[in-house]
Design brief:
864 residues; alpha+beta; 6-stranded antiparallel sheet; 23 helices; 34% helix
Length: 864
């Protein structure tokens, strides 16, 4: 019995010593143990995501890719796979697994090696959030006590959710949600059993068992996970057999980008860094929802790209990108490897010329595909000599290509064709007229080619795009659309520039007294200068500042009237928006709202809207009549009317709905109201004149019809609620087209980043036929087609807006030659709009010959 008593005493002594040791260890590490309650509010490092207005992912920024998931959103079999692999008794123990500890201790005693097997998932959470990965006894002690504390503070589901979201699983993927995306491009609920097993096997060896870098070891690890699931009876023998026989389908998947808009995402990234700092911006899981419309953005990108291609091709082919061989062809694999080292750009891909026949060529692309370039894809390639000169049209493929050359090709949507990387630059931006929301923004032809955002950063001379604002200043003084301005050479020069500056028309043609409407529509230079002289230089500058132009960019000389200021496309679009919305300067903005990683709203933009602050929110009935339904008595009062919309039912209903919606917005007590910078009447009159830029005027059936500089827009878009203005600077270094309808304002710019380089001339179009728009590059020819194409797509399917003149606008029939009132109703007269009280008071005498004003029918481009 003595030995039993001694044994019992020894047992109790050892127990007391063990308890004392544990207590001592606890109190020793207690000062270093963190507060595990912080896990309840832990902020997982989640990347910054940028979205379009309609929820399309534009970009993702951050070192760690993480898609946090709730426990209930994780498939049961994935949970089983993780638990069977990492901690089969997770739901049974209290944070530490005694059986696992005994097993690890036995391994240590028998082999002298430490084992990971004793760590429960709770311990791994403790280590992952609070401790280092060094294998020391003191760290293990801390890990155990932390695990016990975590089990008291959190539920089992909360602990497992932390583990599933935080574990590093290779390829910058943290958590099972990100791993599913990175390796399989799927949501968790779309994963197959073998894919779940692959992911479950990654936490302990994210590099060694990585299915992309080490596919064989990854398959071995996956199959072991499946065997554990079979052992724990979480899958059947049949499921196991099918799973282990399935091949690995893992491959790298980047972020699931729905809309490629890099200039927009870069603006949003920069904004978030400036506001929150780089660390917080990249890791706090912010979601930035921009004002960009994904559909319109794609249209803008396509229109800009196609317009740049058109310019580039009509100026000729600059030759092969490289020569891969001359006499002895390279091996096929060697050619493909060489091509793969050259990145494609905006649909332009590298290819090698394999053989050339009479009017076709065969090329090999980087995927090993042999492509035939037919003559229709080659005949555009006249030799580039300079920006102003191109060679003769080629007659056969050998005039263009030689076997062994590395070239660029692209599919234009109809067929494959020879291509090249454009050197010319372009930018476009569009805005919502009534609140300034940026709907599209393309800062250049290719972000990979240049990250310089020309929409917001490039200040370029405005050219004739400035003329609507010059004429607005004249209208605000006392001019009307019918005012005659002398279209004649200016003999009294402006000497403020240090030299005798005498502006000329382009082309250098003059037609005498001409109505203001026609002067703007045909962009007549000397008329713009004379209109500014009437308004006064200082007063004109004040008016331009009201439209949002920077006073530091406005020279104090008469070159201002022809667009010498250098401005950004965003400033231009903002200024044109004033005409589109009835006279208000709305602030452009591109971020609608920002949420945190838990979808809590942390920032919401409240835009300034184009409305007067409501004095009375009562509904106001609006009478609608046809201004041309009845003629006034020709022998009594002047023919002056209060015009309203046409009586077409669909237009009327649409317009009424729009007015009702606008009233609701304007009566919102929480709204911010934009500053009114010009009268609604002036905005309306300039808009009507800008419609003439597109639609022209006069009566073609009687030979008095005339074109505006943007007549191509009318031919393509075929709707009368669009208005716009061309713009070209001296020597065609910058070309513009800016315009709008009541729902969208857009600006296109085309030029070279090298300010000194001219856009030049061309004489043949891309299809090799004579170019109907050949000659010098200009706003109508160079930037205009981009705007035309974009607006045609953007407005397709939308209702054309009827003309509803604002209160205070009247119409009167005038004589075209004199701008005076007339009692005639023939082709020498037409209705014109006036601010009430400014309409002509004098009739043209009946005995006066009603000759037409000077008309230039625009045989070729008006270079404005």
């Amino acid at each position: 019995m003595k030995w039993f008593k001694r044994l019992l005493i020894a047992f109790f002594s050892l127990s007391l010593l063990g308890i004392a040791a544990i207590a001592a260890a606890y109190f020793y590490v207690l000062p270093d143990l963190p507060d595990v309650n912080s896990l309840k509010t832990v902020q997982l490092q989640t990347p910054l995501r940028i979205y379009s207005q309609d929820g399309k992912l534009i970009s993702q920024f951050g070192e760690k890719r993480r898609i946090p998931v709730e426990y209930d959103d994780v498939p049961v079999q994935l949970i089983n796979a993780v638990l069977d692999t990492e901690d089969a008794r997770f739901f049974e123990h209290r944070g530490i697994d005694p059986i696992g500890i005994i097993r690890a201790a036995t391994i240590l005693i028998t082999t002298g090696k430490k084992s990971q097997g004793a760590s429960t998932i709770t311990q791994q959470v403790a280590r992952g959030f609070f401790l280092s990965n060094e294998k020391t006894y003191i760290r293990k002690v801390k890990e155990i006590f932390l695990a016990l504390k975590i089990e008291k503070a959190l539920s089992k589901k909360e602990i497992l959710a932390l583990y599933l979201n935080r574990s590093f699983l290779g390829n910058r993927a943290y958590g099972v949600g990100a791993a599913a995306q990175v390796y399989y491009g799927k949501e968790l609920n779309q994963l197959s059993l073998p894919e779940m097993a692959m992911i479950a096997g990654l936490p302990q060896a994210p590099s060694a068992a990585n299915p992309i870098r080490n596919p064989e070891r990854a398959m071995t690890r996956r199959n072991w996970v499946l065997s554990r699931m079979l052992e724990k009876r979480n899958i059947t023998q049949a499921e196991y057999e099918e799973a282990i026989n399935s091949p690995s389908t893992a491959k790298y998947h980047g972020a699931e980008i729905d809309l490629y808009a890099p200039y927009v995402s870069e603006m949003a990234r920069d904004y978030m860094i400036q506001k929150f700092g780089e660390e917080a911006a990249y890791t706090n899981g912010y979601n930035v929802y921009t004002t960009i419309s994904s559909d319109l953005q794609l249209m803008a990108q396509e229109s800009l790209r196609d317009n740049v291609f058109a310019y580039d091709q009509r100026h000729g082919y600059r030759g092969a990108a490289a020569e891969l061989w001359t006499d002895s062809p390279l091996q096929r694999d060697e050619i493909i490897d060489t091509l793969k080292r050259t990145a494609s750009m905006q649909g332009i891909i590298p290819a090698a010329v394999m053989n050339v026949s009479e009017q076709q060529a065969q090329v090999l692309d980087s995927d090993g595909q042999l492509i035939t370039l037919e003559w229709k894809g080659l005949k555009w390639a006249r030799k580039f000599i300079s920006d102003k000169r191109q060679g003769l049209p080629p007659k056969q493929a050998s005039d263009i290509l030689t076997a062994g050359q590395q070239v660029w090709i692209r599919n234009n949507g109809k067929h494959w064709q020879l291509s090249q990387i454009p050197l010319v630059s372009s930018a476009t931006v569009s805005l919502e007229p009534h609140n300034g929301a940026i709907k599209t923004l393309v800062g250049g032809f290719s972000f990979s080619q240049s990250q310089f955002n020309r929409v917001t950063q490039a200040k370029r001379q405005l050219g004739s795009n400035i003329k609507p604002f010059i004429y607005a200043a004249a209208l605000e003084k006392d001019y009307t659309l019918a005012t005659l301005i002398n279209n004649a050479p200016i003999n009294k020069p402006d000497t403020r520039q240090g030299t005798a500056w005498r502006p000329k028309n382009s082309p250098d043609i003059y037609g005498g007294p001409t109505r203001l409407r026609v002067g703007l529509a045909q962009s007549i230079n000397v008329m713009s200068v004379r209109a500014m002289r009437h308004a006064g230089l200082d007063n004109t500058i004040k008016e331009l500042i009201k439209f949002g132009f920077d006073p530091n960019d406005l020279p104090r000389n008469e070159s201002l009237a022809l667009g010498s200021p250098s401005v950004t496309p965003l400033q231009v679009a903002t200024a044109f928006n004033v005409f589109a919305n009835g006279g208000y300067l709305v602030e452009p903005y591109f971020i609608d709202h920002v949420t945190d990683g838990y979808d809590n709203m942390i920032e919401q933009t409240i835009p300034a809207i184009a409305c007067d602050m409501p004095q009375d929110t009562a509904q106001v009935a609006v009478e609608v009549e046809d201004p041309f339904a009845a003629m006034a008595d020709e022998l009594s009062q002047p023919e002056i009317e209060q015009p309203f919309a046409t009586q077409e039912t669909d237009k009327l209903e649409t317009q009424t709905a729009l007015m009702s919606a606008e009233e609701n917005v304007c009566s919102n007590p929480n709204a911010r109201f934009a500053k009114k910078v010009v009268s609604e009447q002036t905005a309306f009159l300039i808009t009507e004149a800008l419609k003439s830029v597109i639609w022209g005027g006069g009566d073609w059936s009687h030979g008095t019809g005339w074109n505006g500089t943007a007549w191509r827009a009318a031919k393509l878009i075929k709707r009368h609620d669009i208005a716009g203005k061309t713009g070209t600077t001296n020597e065609a270094r910058d070309t513009w087209f800016s315009g709008f309808n009541p729902t969208l304002t857009a600006t296109f710019w085309v030029g070279f980043d090298d300010h000194g380089r001219q856009l030049g001339r061309s004489s043949w179009v891309a299809n090799g036929e004579p170019d109907q728009i050949s000659g010098g590059e200009a706003g109508a020819k160079t930037a205009g087609p981009g705007w035309n194409d974009f607006m045609n797509k953007a407005l397709a399917g939308t209702t054309e807006h009827a003309v509803i003149p604002p209160k205070g606008i009247v119409s009167a029939r005038i004589d075209l030659a004199t701008g005076k009132l007339t009692r005639k109703t023939d082709h020498t007269t037409e209705f014109e709009y006036f601010v009430e009280g400014t309409e002509p008071k004098e009739y043209v005498p009946d005995t006066q010959l009603n000759g037409d004003i000077f008309i230039d029918n625009v045989a070729e481009d008006l270079f404005q």
